[in-house]
Amino acid sequence: TRVVVLLSGTGSNLAALLAAHADPAYGARVVGVVSDKPDAGGLVLAREAGVATVVVRPGDFDDRAAWDAALAEAVGVFRPSLVVSAGFMRLLGAPFLARWGGRVINTHPALLPSFPGAHGVRDALAHGVKVTGCTVHLIDAGVDTGPIIAQRAVEVRDDDDEARLHERIKTVERELLVDVVGRVAREGLSVDGRRVRIGSGG
Ligand code: GRF
User: Fold this and answer.
1) Which residues pair with 132 in a beta bridge?
2) How far is 111 from 62, CA to CA, in rounded Å?
3) Which residues does the annotation say bind N(1)-(5-phospho-beta-D-ribosyl)glycinamide (predicted)?
4) Which label site among 27, 28, 94, 162 has the fewest CB atoms less than 10 Å from its CB?
């Protein structure tokens, strides 16, 4: 299964996927990495691993829709079966979802539907929850609102700050993402409304 990863940041989730895909039995291969930011650290990781990279910068396009369409095209060049958004800090618009919807998954560092958006870790900490976690879900038109594929809990400690909590979450998150991407690649996904099951049967 050909996988394209969308990222905007350091790429620790990408690094975990690259480590996993070295095993032919994993079932998924990262064939391309696409970013909105030319200086995303994850692009360096991809290049070091010999994986092709493409940057699609919003500033290079007249408007949001043009950028969205260009992003969809850039992803299409790699002919992926699955698109994984891992720390991609842009919303995917209707043109992109029209083409890739149902095959795009996202990882979020909170237990959705709690704490969606760009500051899920900070918001969970501020709310005083004792347990947070991470979620892998299908992307729909909303912000972190798509059907949930898998989740894992992570404890919040009294002396946590955002960075320390996010690191603890990321340790669990990349394991969950590697597990889910491999299983989806090998077994497929079946979606019934908001209920998602890994494993064909569909
Ligand atoms: C991850 O925690 C992801 O859920 C969040 O941003 C972080 C990206 O980390 N949206 P990395 O770039 O994969 O290290």
Assistant:
1) 154
2) 36
3) 11-13
4) 94
